[in-house]
Every structure is written in C-alpha cells, then in structure tokens.
Write a structure and sequence with these properties.
single chain, alpha+beta, globular
Length: 339
C-alpha cells in the first residue's frame, strides 16, 4: 500500500508534466481574401516598376525628340534667313509684278488714266489694277506671295513699304474677288485687305475676299487665321477672329448686328485656287532650293538630316505649319521675328 507521502510526490509530478507539455501551434489556412490581397500587392508592385520604367523611357524619348526639334528649328531659321535675304531684300526681286493668264487687264497710276498692260508689268504703290470679263490675273509679291484676281475685280496697292525689320502691304479692294496667299518667306509682316466695309488683317495665311455689287464683303480663311473688322465711315465698329475654314460676311445694311462666323463654302473658285497654290508653292520651293543649294551639304552634315527631312521642313515652312513651343529660347524667337 502506497504511503501518503508517495502519493503527494506523484501529484506534483503529474501536474508538472501537464504544465510542461508542449502546445501544438494550430496552422491556419489562408483565406481567399488574404491570397487576393497578396496577389494585388504583387501586381501593384510590378505595375509601379513598369510605370517607372516606361516613365523613364518616355522622358528620354521626349528629350531626344525635343533636341531633334530644336535642331530642325535651327535649320528652319537658316532656310528662313537665306530665303528672306533673297526674296525680300534682294533689289533684283520685284516687289509687285502683274501676271496675266487670260483676258484684258488695265492699270492706273496715281493721278493717271486707265491703260491696258502686258504680262509681266511691274506694279508700284498707289497703282490700281482692274480685270475685265473672262479675265484671270495675279499680282506676285516678292516672288513668293500671290494675289489672284477674278474677273471684274478692282484692287489698288495702297501700301507696300519695307522699313527696318518690317514689311507692310495694304490692298484696297472695291469690287470683285481676290485670293491672297501670303508666305512667311516673303518677309511680309503685315498684310491687310480693305474693302468699303471691312478690314481683314492676316500674316502668313490664305484668305478669299469677295465684294459683291450690293456692297457685302465675305472673308473666308482657308489657312491660318485673320482679324476681320467691320468699318463705318472709316471707323472700326466690330472685330472678330476668323480661323481656318471659317468665314464671315459684313453686310452694310446690318450695322448693328454682330459678326457671325460660318463654315467656308468651298465653291469652284476656292477649289481651283487651292490647286493653283500647290503649283505656285512648288515653284517657290524650287527657287528656294536653287538659292540654298550651296548650303545643303553643310546643313545635312551638321544636323544629321536626310534629303526627305529637309524637304519636309522646307515644305512645312512654306505652308506655315511650324509653331514654336512656349519655352523656345529668345534668341531663336528673335531670329525668326527678324526674318
């Protein structure tokens, strides 16, 4: 029979064994939501790394494109200066010359009478030009801009002035229809067409001006933009900006009505002149190439340009497609502004 002391010794031993018995850690299974969160975190990390890599590549690409762009701007500046020196400052280049395609054209010098003239006649400030029935004629400005005259049209070269750093041309159109394509390379800074009721001010653009026998004036902007003003007794009473493919009609009977912008109606006259512009621009481009030919190898070598790139730049510049970004260096702006 066990003694009481022995029983007492066994009891603590049992209790100790219960206490020291290691507890098993219960493994918990990952819930679907937890797995989903871990997957999302992993995917998010990958996306962030991808975005950082793409952002870096985009930044480097943007830097390269910008550097390339400024190189192209420099080439445009060089082309611009060379062309400007030839077309606008060359004393051998006529400021204004009459080209007669068909029909009869008469001119009148200031204080003189109407006289029939031949193709190629030089025109001067204050000269007035009048076309007859079934007549097609043009006035070439600095060999690089053009004013086309429809039949039964009368215009006067009110002003053609070259001053230091600025060239201004003003045309007075009393009746008929004209098409003006003013190229930047001609050096014309300010070009205005004035009718009895309207002033259209443009720069480096193409506009169509139609003055009817009723006195209405319709100004249609084909390329670029123009500031069109309604006038009354020589005073501007309303002004609006007309952008590409927009037109505005000034009716002298509706003096209190605001100018209304409408889409351009491209009739046969507009379509015909757009085609003629392509041919005219091609001739100007060909002439420009002849003038800059000695410099082309150097331009291509220095700026790493191909013939195709140079051709695109010249064509784009003649069409007035290039606009400078806001942070363009002042020295580039000054050169282009001068040219």
């Amino acid at each position: 029979m066990a003694k009481k002391s022995d029983i007492n010794n066994i009891k603590p031993s049992i209790e100790k064994s219960r206490v020291e018995k290691p507890t098993r850690t219960k493994k918990t299974k990952a819930t679907p939501s937890k797995k989903k969160n871990e997957t999302l975190k992993s995917n998010k990390s990958k996306i962030v790394k991808t975005d950082e890599r793409e952002g870096k590549e985009k930044k480097e690409k943007s830097k390269f494109i910008r550097k390339r762009f400024f190189m192209m701007i420099l080439v445009i500046v060089i082309i611009c200066i060379l062309g400007f020196l030839w077309f606008a400052l060359n004393p051998e280049v006529a400021k204004a010359q009459l080209i007669i395609e068909s029909g009869v054209v008469q001119i009148k010098h200031e204080g003189g009478s109407w006289t029939s003239v031949q193709n190629g006649t030089l025109l001067y400030q204050s000269d007035t030009v009048k076309t007859g029935n079934d007549t097609s004629a043009s006035i070439i400005l600095f060999k690089s801009s053009i004013i086309r005259l429809d039949s039964n049209t009368e215009v006067m070269i009110q002003e053609i002035i070259q001053q230091t750093g600025e060239t201004s041309v003003k045309i007075q159109q009393d009746i008929g229809r004209t098409w003006s394509t003013i190229s930047k390379i001609s050096g014309i800074d300010n070009y205005d067409v004035q009718t009895p009721t309207t002033i259209a001010s443009v720069r480096g653009t193409t506009i169509d001006v139609n003055v009817t026998t009723e006195g209405n004036t319709t100004v249609s902007v084909i390329n670029g933009s123009a500031i069109v003003s309604r006038t009354q007794n020589g005073t501007i009473v309303d002004t609006t900006e007309v952008n590409e493919n927009q037109s505005v009609t000034v009716d002298p009977k509706l003096i209190n009505q605001s100018l209304e912008i409408k889409p351009v109606e491209k009739d046969g006259w507009i379509q015909k002149n757009q085609q003629k512009d392509e041919e005219f621009r091609g001739n100007v481009k060909e002439e420009l190439y002849r003038r800059i030919e000695p410099y082309i190898p150097k331009l291509k070598e220095q700026y790493g340009m191909t013939d195709e790139e140079l051709d695109v730049l010249i064509d784009g510049y003649l069409k007035g497609y290039f606009d400078l970004p806001p942070d363009t260096p002042d020295w580039i702006r000054e050169i282009i502004e001068y040219s």
